[in-house]
Amino acid sequence: MIEERQADRFDWPPGLSSYVHGDHVRVTTSGPHPYVWVAVPIALVLGALGLAGIGNVGTGGLVSLITGLGAMVFAAAILTSTAYSIWGSLEITHRGAGWIVTRRLGPLKAASAFNVSSVRSAELYSPPPYVILWPGGAGLHVRLQLKDRDRPVEVGAGLRLDGEVLRGLRSLFAPTP
Description:
Elements: H1 2-8, E1 20-21, E2 24-28, H2 36-55, H3 57-60, H4 62-87, E3 89-95, E4 98-105, E5 108-115, E6 119-125, E7 141-146, E8 153-155, H5 163-173
Antiparallel strand pairs: 1-2, 2-3, 3-4, 4-5, 6-7, 7-8
Helix pairs in contact: 2-4
């Protein structure tokens, strides 16, 4: 039994060793991304406009209702991204021949699972400034290109992780030649 546990043991890169909790690595945000100071006021204005639109249903009809609800949903999405930048965490679990990357914000979570062999590249990436409304996706992070997916998996976006942790994450996912 002990030998089986030793065989399942995974060697985490040195930059992540202080974040290891049993069979997974858990990192939390290092504080809000500066984009929070732009995104929150915009979200609040959008939410207020959405409420005003819903309040005008009697005069504006269905268009006011739909536009108001759309603005409020957009504002809620921006505020959720902002909250992830402030209070979010990331868990990475190694299971056999695969990885599970889970982004958490309180009880909310979004997981991405993939095989080790499907990683084409792991690079440090900083998105362009147009993500200013999405602080939870901003800042330097590790971007994984997978063989079986068109969209990359972004690991650590919005969390403002330090260089040592980012290098550890990149080496963790880097494909072996």
